[in-house]
Design a protein that fits this description.
The structure is a homodimer. Chain A is mostly helical. The first copy, chain A, is built from five helices and two strands; from the N terminus they run H-H-E-E-H-H-H. Chain A has helices spanning 3-10, 14-22, 40-54, 63-70, 80-118; strands at residues 29-30, 36-37. In chain A, 22% of the residues are buried. The first copy, chain A, binds a DNA duplex through residues 2-4, 13-16, 18-19, 23, 33-36, 53, 58-60.
DNA sequence: CTTGACCTTCCCCTAGGGGGCAAGGTTTAT
DNA sequence: ATAAACCTTGCCCCCTAGGGGAAGGTCAAG
């Protein structure tokens, strides 16, 4: 099977498949004319990389799942290393979410203070102040 | 003033200062020997870029704040364009936080299902199952 | 004169590919 | 046989926000 068919069946671009290979995630045979030659199991591997990518797991961190599949397991997460990767990714996401939430809160304060300085001391501002949903 | 002093006083690296210039955020004079020559106000601009960066506002999006300062305002957010940038950044952060939260929830489900498959049908598993704080 | 601190430009690196180009292989239709 | 159409190959540049380092110019002090 050539790269175009693999890409289509896995739902990614041929460029992405070559990129995964460049990361060492796929060991690809070559035809006599230099074309890459894939088999069915590698379509599954590309799908695994892709679906983990959608979950925010970087391609470089998918090796446990790929090894798990290559070892004969039906699912990439049927190995303890894969589950550990899940947990590590969850922790990283939590850290990231906390950071972004703190930034958002800081920005809201800055914005509110700026708006207050911009509309200073309007005694009857209740009528003109927007009460709509805040962003 | 040369770049090293600007960098030190603004709390960034000289590389960062050159990078800001390459983005068109700073208009920098040159000495006769080719060295960049800065004045006090540009230290303030670099500080503004840096502090906005810490809030998650990309350097490229700091122009309203810099223009506001250059126009003579004491604060970079004393202009409506700056406040609009605050709001836009808040919205982007909210979108990003929602995405990450959804990913985290999906990962938790996958992890929990994987763990259940890995420890199948343990009738007296209550004693051995960890009750500690989940990650 | 030389050392050391500081400056300059230039190039490669990050994650995950996207876009594009020139060259060459394959297949099908005429 | 050949042309069109499509596929594949490698290669290079692009994105963040600079970091690291090379190769070399400039200046003050010893």
């Amino acid at each position: 099977m050539r790269i175009g068919e693999v890409a289509e069946r896995a739902g990614v671009s041929a460029k992405a498949v070559r990129y995964y290979e460049s990361l060492g995630l796929l060991a690809v045979d070559r035809h006599t004319n230099g074309y890459r030659d894939y088999d069915e199991s590698q379509v599954e591997l590309v799908r695994e990389i892709r679906s983990l990518g959608r979950l925010g797991i970087p391609a470089d961190d998918t090796r446990p799942f790929l090894d798990c599949l290559v070892s004969g397991n039906l699912r990439g997460d049927d190995c303890s290393e894969s589950v550990a990767t899940y947990s590590a990714t969850i922790d990283e996401l939590s850290t990231r979410i906390d950071e972004l939430s703190a930034r958002r809160e800081a920005l809201r304060q800055l914005r509110d203070h700026a708006v207050m300085r911009g509309e200073p001391l309007c005694e009857f501002s209740k009528e003109t102040t927007s009460v709509s949903h805040d962003s």
